[in-house]
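Database export, one record per block. Field names are fixed; values are copied verbatim from the stored entry.
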Amino acid sequence: MKKLLFIFLAFIISISLYSQRRVEISKQLKDLSFQRIYKDHNHNNEFKKPLNQTVTSKSTLADETLVGGTIYDLQSNSLLGNRIWLHSDGTIGAVWTRGVLSPPNFPDRGTGYNYFDGSSWGSEPQEIIETVRAGWPSYAPLGENGEIIVSHDFTAGVLLINTRPEKGTGDWTETSHAGPEGHLISWGRMVTSGINNDIIHTLCVTFPTGNGGTLYNGQDGALLYSRSNDGGVSFDISNLILEGTGIEYYSGIRADEYTWAEPRAGVIAFVCAETWRDMFMMKSEDDGDSWDKTVIWEHPYPFFDWETTVFTDTLYCTDASADIAVDNNGMVHVVFGISRVAHFEVGTTYTIWPFTDGIGYWNETMDPFEAENQHDALDPYNVLIPDVNLVGWSQDVDGDGEVNLVEELITYRELGISTMPNISVGSDNRLYVVYASTTENTDLGGYNAKRIWVRNSHDGGTTWGNFYDLTSDLIHIFDECFYPVMAGSVDDNIHVMYQYDAIPGTALDEDHAYIDNFENYVKWPVVNFTGIEEPNEALDAESVSQNYPNPFSQTSEVWVDLENSSDLSMEVTDIMGKKVYEVNPGKVSAGQHKMVIDGSRLHGGIYFYTVKAGESSITKKMIVE
């Protein structure tokens, strides 16, 4: 233990960023599997006996702020909602589910709220926003300078809407939104749009049978969309099942499978992701009057049924975590965790490979992941390419060429070892992704702890930069950091909130006793990314052509257009990053230059060619037949 701690200290002090090269987890760990029993999500928290409560101490960095705490420690079953919002005037609102009294039932459970007024955060809240027991808040601006929180009252089966006209101050006005007659609703998600953020959009699901509900329009959990133009007093669209989400497509939608993008460029959009169904995106360019659906990750069994659907092959799928962003051109970007499961026999017992690792990425210029390719039991990563559509993974912290993790693992339900990704967009269309990842050289009672990692793309998702550990400071050496949420907009900083405590897992799932959990806010300057990913004027994505023909077996040409003379070269690597071919014209003049790739010298498969001119480089993908 002391030796491990020393190694961890040495590296955490000296290293704050990590290179792009992917180092995989050992085959021994990747092949580990175990059985689990599927359970419907239930937030009544009625355990057979209460667990002993212990207390841990608070800790924050000098450049972090502790905004609040909770002992109730489950922030989401899968996808996180909009929990932190950077307002246009530089102020910030943040919310989380808070409960501190009488576990495991927590009669005081509800929304914890804090506000940054442009110079400092408020004191830690001592009470919840709602007038009744609640949870699962979403936060957004409302009107010219107001704010709104939508949560759920699980007992009454309604959404709670709290608003006030001036953010950060004043009394809250609480109303509620009920589901279809005879049906309870819960697990709400909300966002606002319009010039003055005066249009409210909500998503929720009807109670599944596992939570005491009944089928609605044939679905065991129906996804409902509602819209209000008057602050939630009335809804012109109420409890609508959108085309593409109903019984013709899915037998039901599970709690917390969905989350909204921050609206931008006249577009609203949400993503729905779950292990046992398609991951799909719904997009509207007219504030919810009409919608277009895109299946991003196709599930081979969209009507999966525990009592009838059996498959003998392993299935690669999303891990029930995802996030979505709309850039300044109205294009949608999605990030998601990756898992591997099997259902060998009827019943709710299934098999999971918990060390399956990766954060996937997709945008509207990319092809969707089709079922015939994505769940190949032998090689799923033939369509998941590092730094193309695979943008996150557990890091080789000590740089020894291996990711060394202990076999004991807290799995957080289906969530993978790299999970809970969030994606945000800057005014220059730079993308920023944060996620929680089980990290080597950490030791919390025999488990590797999760840390919060971040990386960015300066060119809207074409290329990706280095990895940074946002929680690398020594003060977090004995913390498990989880549930990262990032403001959907970026100014000179990315704005992240995450939860931490001293023991991996959740007390709600009986992984350990109830202890104090803390909500931390961290401001990470975007200049920390520059100098590594920043391109110069020698090359951009438009000045390097896609190779033609592609795919090819003999020769293929790449054209490069230079505005100034430069040292020019091209390197071809395989999917493991090994250099297999090189073209080096040397110093060339301004203008167009052709470089030829000889495919007869390469085996069939996927490769990447990187064109370098001076200090800049562009990487693109090609296929050799």
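Remark 1: Residues 1-15, 43-55, 531-536 have pLDDT under 50 and may be disordered.
Remark 2: DSSP finds three helices and 37 strands in the chain.
End of record.
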